[in-house]
Amino acid sequence: MGADHTRSAPPTPPGVRRILVVTVVPLFLATLIAALVLWPRDAPRPEAADDAPRYHGTVTRVVSEPCPPNPAVPEGTPTAAAGPCGTVTVRVQTGPDAGQEVQTPIPAGPGAPRVEVDDDIILVSLIDPEDPSVSNYNIAEHQRGKPLVWLAVLFAAAIIAFGRLRGLAALGGLAASFAILLTFVLPGISAGRPPLVVAIVGASLIMFVVLYLTHGISAQTSVAVLGTLASLVLTGLLGLAATGATHLTGFGSEDATTLSMFRADVDLHGLLLAGIIIGSLGVLDDVTVTQAAAVTELRHANPNFTRRELYRSATRVGRAHIASVVNTIVLAYAGASLPLLLLLTADSRALGQIVTSEFLTTEIVRSVVATLGLIAAVPLTTALAVVVSTAGRDDAGTSTSEPTPVVPRPARDRAESLRALSTPPTRNTSPATSSGWPDPDRSTDTTW
């Protein structure tokens, strides 16, 4: 997460560093204490499912054949032509029949995998309820372990090859993010903790670890941390107000409804707010790091910028960034919900009813709240970065402790200047050294 800005920032005055340490360290300690208090010590364990045994196998032969007519279905209907039909020969790799070849029917139906020879698949052993001693194999799905491993290796290799040590740190931050999500945020919500509080604490913990691990411990990173933390809290409050004003319950998707059947104690309204906060964190830290770096670079490029000029210049960078990020957020939410959005286009209800439905209103609130949080992050982070980068200097951009003396420009006679411009340059003919080579210490600049 975040942008890469490798140029070292100018040294921050000791007083400003002390103020940042006094501000950031207590916030980090408060986040750790809150995480320890909310840590899910009594999280419910997943119930042991009575699933059918699953084994690995490799397809060695596929034989297709016409499907027999189904007398229960009228001829000519789409269901009557359901298929494909035939048998698949599979060499079993694990389980009691390892090394043997078994026959299974070709998978059919919506979402059934399409198998070919040499495909690595997963077999499910189904026991006949009338005769428990009889079992049959069916193909459940493809094995995806090896492709996922190769994708992960390619992903890590590309990041490390391009980012080197910074890329390695980014991978460490990504691992830390997933570790916090899997060990604190998700179990905490499952244990009945307030989802909004758990999400803010978990996102803050991710932010501290990822930003300092990826971008190093510096005043610039501390500014991004403070801007991100303030924007996260503001995003949570905006989400709370928006979901309350639109009377969202959190049951806007089939997944939420299914979750309520298995975990009736989970607050789905709070879970909706938690999703907004976690989803906006990745873009938030990118915006805040970019704004802090933009202020530092502008200050380095023109030390004579006043605070107002520096703020306005960095804000223009933030506007361009926000303009592209807004489209990213909306398209990300739309892409994740594309099947349901496509289903809504076939809805015969009026457009006003569709837009104000629970599902579509939820997606609108997600996008609007996340965008408002990002917009607020730009002026907050920029203002803080301007204060930090100009600390110890007056508003004209010079140091307040040691004013720069103004050296008057020596006056020259006009005739002398014209004569110097019209005279051709003379070559510096310094004597050569004893070895015959010119003196290496002499200047190679021509004199006018």
TrEMBL record:
Membrane-traversing stretches:
19-39, 148-165, 171-189, 196-217, 223-242, 322-344, 364-388
- Name of this chain's protein: YibE/F family protein
On the tree of life, the source organism's domain of life is Bacteria
Here the segments flagged for biased composition (Polar residues) are 423-436
User: Which InterPro entries does the entry link to?
Assistant: YibE_F
Here the segments flagged for biased composition (Basic and acidic residues) are 439-448
Query: Residue ranges of region Disordered?
Result: 61-82, 393-448
What are the record keywords, sorted?
A: Membrane, Transmembrane, Transmembrane helix
Matching Pfam families: YibE_F (PF07907)
Lineage summary:
Bacteria, Bacillati, Actinomycetota, Actinomycetes, Micromonosporales
